Amino acid sequence: MPAVSIEHYENFPVASWLCPPHLRPAVVAIYHFARTADDLADEGSATTAERQAALRAYRQDLRACFAGQPPSPRWADRVFLPLAARIRQHQLPQPLLEALLDAFEQDLVKTRYASRAELLHYCERSANPVGRLLLHLYGVGSPQALAQSDAICSALQLINFWQDFSRDGPNGRCYVPQEDLDRHGLQAEAWVRCEDSPVARRLIAELCTWARQLMMSGAPLAHTLPGRAGWELRLVVQGGLRILERIEAMDHASLVRRPRLSALDAAPLLWRALRMRPAPQGARA
User: Which UniProt keywords are given for this protein, alphabetically ordered (predicted)?
Assistant: First the structure.
């Protein structure tokens, strides 16, 4: 993610200096909602059953906010009281927030994906709602803008997967579609053991190409969003592409080493964001 963010949730930047001040409270409230749910699903030593129970209680508190009822004390101060205020102020869509919880719950029980289409269906709940919530705040809702936002968010989710092989593997998770593994003669169990090989690196190179193409298909959205929103999205796009470059620079060895961005990447990201140009009309069509 771009270095301009003050906090990080894997699918969006939060309260950067490019975010319009009047929208920052809403963006931060959505961030804390998603970040806390992610922690309930992933952090600590709780059992799967305990995590599922916590996420069910969390969803009940979300529904209480939309019903105008008080949430439970557990997450009220940090998450649901600020979120309830922004729900009222901005009429946030409930299905998008619930979709994020669907994805976190899925992560507790599903660790394999048969096809790219199935993995993208997961991204529709784990990543795309974030972009749609931000577009809602900006008052943007055209079908083209929503589709481009979905492409960017899904690409960011995929890039996060390709970046985190060495973290997800020890947790038994394999986000590489089985159809891609089969095509290269690889086994999911070997993948979660992070067994590096020339064949595995060739597959990672293909996956990076897929994510890059998806990102570039949505990138024109950055030129249609107003003011600061467009500039922030340019940095988001370039941050994702920069991670792909890091994976390529290490010869696609992300099974054994996690690529990351640093403060040194800030200047190149800003420069590339400034140089982004809208695609020609024919290319967009």
Answer: Transferase
